[in-house]
Design a protein that fits this description.
The complex is a heterodimer of chains A (about 150) and B (about 80). With about 150 residues, chain A is α+β, with helices and mostly antiparallel strands. Chain A has helices at about 10-20, 60-75, 105-120; strands at about 1-5, 30-35, 40, 45-55, 80-85, 85-90, 95-100, 125-130, 140. Chain A contains 3 helices and 9 strands; from the N terminus they run E-H-E-E-E-H-E-E-E-H-E-E. In chain A, helix 2 (about 60-75) runs antiparallel to helix 3 (about 105-120). By secondary structure, chain B is of the alpha+beta class. Chain B has helices at about 10-15, 30-40; strands at about 1-5, 20-25, 50, 55, 65-70. Classes of the chains: A alpha+beta (about 150), B alpha+beta (about 80). At the A-B interface, strand 4, helix 2, helix 3 and strand 8 of A face loops of B.
């Protein structure tokens, strides 16, 4: 399942609900998950908020393609990808990627693959609102580049 | 021949709008469309291309009715 949401979400509840509803108890022996959370500091500056823009249509298509590629490469039973868009505050979860499989190798490697591809190719853009200091108040900046994950 | 052109993130701010229709007579590749729309703008950052919501190259062909998008490197996750 792939979800792009403009609302705050609880990744732990989403994981529990999805795992219950997918109804594959006994088949999976592994669930690997990654949760990305908004920090309140970046490049030495305090960050008090963020706007996450995306390309409606292409984002969903690209995520579906990544998940299909992962399913072709590894033995995957189920996947769950949730990504937040719109206005976020520090500590808000941004992204959840979870993969269920029979064995840990497939779960670890497929979830890593999906996450790294999402970070480097899925069309999302972050704009940070900077400022704990008066001088910085009201200042915004686009995040130029994601850090490498490997 | 006309296409839909989309701009995202910092490029949307540079152009002042996120979407426009463009007559593309003679502009048969993404690179040519980009040269046309970016004329007069000072854009030093890297720009990525897509056609019909799939990544494309400057040499990718553009045809009537296509959706072409220009955007900076992605920063999601």
């Amino acid at each position: 399942m792939i979800k792009i949401t403009g609302n705050a979400f609880d990744p732990w509840k989403e994981l529990a609900t999805f795992q219950c509803e997918m109804n594959r108890d006994g088949e999976f022996g592994a669930c690997a998950n990654f949760i990305g959370t908004m920090r309140d500091i970046n490049e030495g500056d305090s960050v008090n908020g963020m706007f996450l823009e995306h390309y409606p249509g292409m984002t969903e298509k690209h995520l579906a393609k990544i998940v299909d590629e992962a399913k072709a490469k590894w033995d995957v039973l189920e996947t769950l990808v949730i990504h937040r868009v719109g206005k976020l505050l520090p500590h808000d979860p941004i992204v959840l990627v979870a993969v269920w499989s029979a064995h840990r190798k497939d779960a670890f490697e497929a979830s890593r693959f999906i996450m790294e591809d999402l970070k480097s190719k899925a069309p999302f853009w972050k704009k940070e609102s900077i400022g704990a200091t008066e001088k910085q108040a009201g200042k915004t900046r686009w995040v130029a580049k994601n850090t490498g994950g490997y | 021949m006309s296409i839909k052109v989309l701009y995202f993130a910092s490029l949307k701010e540079v152009f002042g709008h996120g979407e426009e229709r463009l007559k593309t007579d003679g502009l048969n590749t993404v690179g040519k469309v980009w040269r046309q729309v970016s004329k007069g703008h000072d854009i030093s950052q890297q720009v990525l291309f897509s056609v019909n919501q799939e990544y494309a190259e400057a040499s990718s062909l553009v045809k009537d009715g296509d959706e072409v998008a220009f955007f900076p490197p992605v920063t999601g996750g």
